[in-house]
Design brief:
The complex is a heterotrimer of chains A (306), B (425) and C (272). With 306 residues, chain A is mainly α. In chain A, 70% of the residues lie in helices and 0% in strands. Chain A has 13 helices and no strands. The longest helix of chain A has 32 residues. Chain B is α/β, with parallel strands linked by helices. Chain B has two domains: 156 residues, Periplasmic binding protein-like II (D-Maltodextrin-Binding Protein, domain 2, 3-Layer(aba) Sandwich); 199 residues, Periplasmic binding protein-like II (D-Maltodextrin-Binding Protein, domain 2). In chain B, strands 2-1-3-11-4 form a five-stranded mixed sheet. In chain B, strands 7-8-6-9 form a four-stranded mixed sheet, sandwiched between helices. Chain B has a two-stranded antiparallel ribbon with strand order 5-12. Chain C folds into two domains: 49 residues, no CATH class; 213 residues, MetI-like (MetI-like fold). The longest helix of chain C is centred in the first third of the chain and has 32 residues. With 272 residues, chain C is mainly alpha-helical. Classes of the chains: A mainly alpha (306), B alpha/beta (425), C mainly alpha (272). At the A-C interface, α1, α2, α4, α5 and α6 of A face α1, α3, α4, α5 and α6 of C.
């Protein structure tokens, strides 16, 4: 299915034609590149510069502190907590979303009547803004009059305060995020499943492979491009969880459930520590690059050509 | 088929793009002339008001202004919770609105960006308590103080009388009252409700208790805080009171996961006796349940021989950007708001005092006492802490309640941020 | 598939559907009750408090906000999909060291956190007079979604054999014709996915809209809905009603594109 490097061409005139305008194809990505340089690269460089100062976010004066903010980060206990939280949010959400998303996709691919409706229902939460979803979840899990507690009380059990335990609170946030975005994985996997030629699966069936073998030996390997895209996209999404955290816990208590994103916002605008916040931003970028590219690299290698 | 579909989509896209470029014309960009009385001028005004009734009051006064000044158009923006973040971003880009509210930070944050207003017609009418807040060190008037806050502890007096309790005037009386309610109500009424998931509620507690603890007694820490010689072990007291409320179960168990909106709901159901929210919650509770009468009491004193106080400070203030291109129109706008009838209109039914001596308001019966001798102290963090300490107080308070920091550690953490911010300002 | 298997699948599907519908049910229940009501949200108020909808509409100026959001979303989605496809094509087809580096750089763009660049970006926007202008925010949305779009399209393009390009070249098609008339139709499902994923992201965007579209007449729905969440007043019921109303256009879009979204793919011309 995929080819790296130049294709083997059997018709020489076509090669020459393709080759002659070869480099000019690259002009096609110039507009995109220009936009990216102007609106992402340039501000990012300035943002990195802020991380080398003690700027408070608004006044015209500041001092250069070199790597001082980064040194501070190393000894700051808050940063450790928050870093761990961010990793949990990213990795746990991704794993859950992909496992459940794949499961849903397999269910929906069977062609049962009504599958289209279920597919729509699962995708719908994505369409709602994540701040609203966060608040809906708050109305479900909150201690006083939450939907979950109403059900528990109706069945004679004690109400629970899921957000009170800081570890549970992190899991609730992961659950809320997974719930909302599982549709993305589902849809990517559905597309992938439907582009697997039936002939492959039929051939395997004829050869006597059981459904489980068919899944692990034929479906999943051929699905790897979807897995790559889905995992990478979800990991980056997980790193950027913001509104759900604010809606459920505000990042608290203290920094117990904060992510790099929420703590950056608090430091930048709340505690007026823009230099430090910018440093955390660079850290977040490095983390995203590390996670994203690792995921991409690891999965891409496992992709199978048809 | 895709060809025509794609072409159609692109055509729609292009026409929308053209409409996107066209229709916003000069929203946000300014005209160049200020003198011509026939050219309409648009000024941008940013207000921190977010509660619907407050926003409406502003809009009404603005509409009146536009009627009286047909050559000036006002583009008013109410960013709500994003106000501060937005203004800071605009300051960094040197792109401030023509007129904006300084919400207590006239001197300590916005001062370098403000136009001097000492020659305004209302400049001599500023209420004495407000003069220091809106005047620079060299005597230049920087902003119009429309109102002065007067805030105290929220109290449901009906609940208190139900248990035979008088409105407490000392902190010990307050604790006793809370304990009585805890014991006698059998859990049906929460003595003090704090929605700690919204960290600002905890900042409010610190802000208010700090006044009787450190500022209002005759022998106080005011100057020590201002010159940096403050002994931070004295800060432990406030943290310890918060921890005490928690350990004696005088506040809600779920203090760290409950939000302000939960407090408001429970207060509206008459399930809460005291709260530390000040004036803003009164209208919200009324909206949820008009039958509940929530009032405000002065902050009880801590030191023996001291008296209760109100927490005050700047309420609504308007200032003008020094680099505005429409100084004349902006001044006319601010002067209009200084008129007594407009001062009253903006204050509405909030328990605030006017910031100008030319205006009077009737506070109604929201306050438990109308004794005029009760001192109105400046808002603690704005007066005695450097710019940026609010979030520090809030977050450290949360950590205290969650058990990860002791009172002494909170004081140490607060001290180090205090020193960093003092250095930076 | 065997009968019992079918039943298991049916039950599973029903369970999934119900689980995913619960939050919407609760949202609807919140949107229909009067403020200050204290019952559990599991039981909706049968006397629907329609004032929530009308008040949400006027208080948040939902009408104009919806129009703004629609304009911004449609233009940004169309332009970014086109630019993204154009960018993906050479990156997928002409794999050189330069192009691979550029590809990695573009993907790295996905990893830049919004907040890090927000403040410098705002300063830059002020200089180019873009604040409070929809075209500026449209450009931002295009830029910030390009990495993902390029990522999706290059992935999809790797599944489209070069024989197709060559066949088009043999037929005498120029570059743009090859791309838009021959390759793009094959990529319909990816395009549908891009339109939905990017469209929703832009529709629900808050950060850029709140910082760059401050004036009341250019606001988007997400920012307008903030009118319900102030420090002292949380108009939950109105916010719920407003969210339902403001989500409807995207729901309609998704329902309309569903068919292309998953079915309808590159058929015989490429595989088989």
């Amino acid at each position: 299915m995929s080819t790296n490097g130049y294709a083997v061409n059997r018709t020489a005139p076509t090669v020459r034609r393709l080759g002659r305008r070869g480099w000019r194809i690259n002009l096609l990505y110039l507009p995109a590149l220009a936009l990216l340089l102007t609106f992402i690269a340039y501000p990012f460089v300035r943002g990195v510069m802020y991380s080398l100062t003690d700027w408070n976010g608004f006044s015209p004066s500041y001092h250069w502190v070199g790597l001082g903010q980064y040194q501070r980060m190393l000894s700051d206990a808050r940063v450790r907590t928050v870093l761990l939280n961010t990793l949990v949010y990213a990795v746990a959400s991704t794993l859950l979303q992909n496992a459940i998303g794949l499961g849903y996709a397999l269910l929906l691919d069977k062609g049962i009547r009504g599958s289209a409706v279920v597919r729509t229902i699962v995708y719908l939460p994505i369409i709602i803004s994540n701040l609203i979803m966060g608040y809906i979840w708050y109305f479900i899990v909150r201690n006083n009059g939450g939907a979950l507690n109403d059900v528990l009380i109706a069945f004679g059990r004690d109400p629970v305060n899921l957000l009170a335990d800081r570890h549970l609170a992190v899991l609730v946030i992961v659950a809320a995020n997974t719930f909302q975005y599982v549709g993305v994985a589902m849809v990517l996997y559905l597309s992938g499943l439907q582009s697997i030629p039936r002939s492959c699966l039929e051939a395997a069936e004829i050869d006597g492979a059981s459904p489980r073998q068919r899944f692990w030996r034929v479906t999943l390997p051929l699905l790897m491009p979807s897995v790559t895209v889905s995992m990478t996209v979800n990991v980056i999404g997980g790193l950027n969880i913001f509104a759900v955290i604010i809606a459920l816990t505000g990042g608290g208590p203290g920094y117990a459930t904060s992510s790099l994103g929420t703590i950056m916002y608090q430091l930048y605008f709340g505690e007026q520590n823009a230099g430090y916040a910018a440093g955390l931003g660079v850290l977040m970028f490095l983390l995203a690059a590390l996670l994203g590219l690792t995921t991409l690299g690891a999965l891409r290698r496992r992709e199978v050509d048809l | 088929m895709l060809r025509t579909r794609r072409a159609a989509v692109m055509l729609v896209g292009l026409s929308l793009a053209l409409s996107a470029c066209g229709s916003t014309d000069d929203a946000g960009s300014s005209d160049s002339t200020t003198n011509s009385s026939t050219d309409p001028v648009t000024i941008t005004v940013f207000s921190i008001a977010s509660e619907e009734a407050a926003v409406q009051r502003y809009k009404d006064v603005i509409a009146d202004f536009e009627t009286v000044n047909p050559t000036v158009r006002v583009e008013a923006t109410f960013p709500g919770e994003q106000y501060e973040a937005l203004l800071k971003t605009k300051m960094a880009a040197n792109d401030l609105p023509d007129v904006f509210q300084t919400h207590g930070w006239t001197r300590d944050r916005y001062q370098p960006y403000l136009l001097g207003l000492s020659d305004a017609p209302w400049a001599k009418d500023i209420a004495p308590a407000m003069v220091a807040n809106v005047t620079s060190d060299d005597g230049t008037v920087l902003a119009l103080p429309i109102s002065q806050r007067k805030a105290g502890i929220n109290v449901n007096v009906k609940i208190l009388s139900q248990y035979g309790i008088d409105v407490p005037t000392t902190w010990d009386e307050f604790l006793t009252a809370a304990r009585t309610i805890r014991d006698k109500s059998g859990g049906s009424i929460t003595p003090v409700h704090i929605g700690g998931a919204d960290s600002w509620t905890i900042g409010a507690f610190y802000n208010w208790l700090a006044i009787p603890a450190l500022i209002s007694p005759t022998d106080n820490q005011a100057s020590a805080l201002l010159d940096g010689s403050f002994d931070w072990s004295k800060w432990d007291f406030v943290s310890k009171q918060l921890a005490l409320l928690q350990s004696e179960q005088l506040i809600n168990d779920d203090v760290l996961t409950a939000k302000y909106s939960d407090s408001a709901q429970l207060i509206a159901q008459s399930k809460v006796a005291f709260a530390f929210y000040g004036g803003g919650v009164i209208s919200e509770v009324k909206r949820l349940n008009p039958d509940v009468d929530l009032q405000m009491m002065p902050i009880p004193s801590v030191e023996p021989g001291d008296a209760p106080t109100w927490s005050g400070g700047e309420g609504d203030t308007l200032a003008i950007w020094k680099d505005t291109k429409h100084a004349e129109a902006a001044r006319a706008f601010v002067d209009f708001f200084a008129e007594p009838k407009n001062v009253k209109a903006i204050i509405g039914d909030a328990p605030d005092e006017p910031g100008l001596i030319t205006a009077t308001v009737d506070v109604g019966d929201v306050l438990t006492t109308d004794d005029p001798d009760i001192r109105v102290m400046p808002a603690f963090d704005r007066q005695y802490f450097p710019n940026g300490m609010w979030d520090v107080m809030c977050i450290n308070g949360q950590e205290l309640l969650s058990g990860s920091l002791t009172a002494a550690q909170v004081s140490a953490a607060t001290k180090s941020e205090y020193e960093r911010l003092r250095l930076a300002s | 598939m065997s009968g019992s298997r079918r039943i298991v699948v049916r039950i599973s599907l029903a369970a999934v559907a119900i689980a995913h519908l619960v939050p919407f049910y609760l949202l609807l229940s919140l949107a229909t009750r009067s403020p200050g009501s204290t019952g559990t949200i599991w039981v909706p108020q049968f006397a629907v408090h329609w004032a929530n909808v009308t008040e949400a509409w006027t208080a948040a100026r939902l009408g104009p906000s919806l129009v703004n959001t629609l304009v911004i979303t449609v233009v940004a989605v169309v332009v970014s999909a086109v630019l993204g496809l154009c960018a993906a094509y050479p990156l997928a087809r002409r794999v050189t060291r330069v192009n691979s580096t550029i590809m990695s750089a573009i993907i790295a763009g996905m990893m830049v956190p919004n907040l890090t660049i927000l403040v410098p970006l705002y300063g830059f926007m002020v200089q180019i007079h873009g604040v409070n202008h929809r075209w500026a925010v449209i450009l931002l949305h295009i830029t910030f979604n390009l990495p993902l779009i390029v990522f999706l399209y290059t992935g999809a393009l790797r599944g489209v054999p070069r024989e197709l390009d060559e066949a088009a070249a043999i037929d005498g098609a120029g570059l743009f014709r090859t791309l838009f008339q021959v390759i793009a139709p094959v990529l319909k499902p990816t395009t549908a996915a891009v339109v939905v994923i990017v469209g929703v992201a832009i529709w629900n965007d808050f950060n850029f809209s709140v910082f760059f579209l401050q004036a009341p007449d250019v606001r988007t729905v997400t920012v307008s809905m903030q009118a319900f969440f102030s420090q002292y007043n949380v108009y939950v019921e109105r916010a719920a009603a407003g969210s339902i109303v403001s989500s409807l256009p995207m729901v309609v879009l998704f329902l309309a594109l569903q068919k292309y979204f998953v079915k309808g793919l590159a058929s015989g011309a490429v595989k088989g």
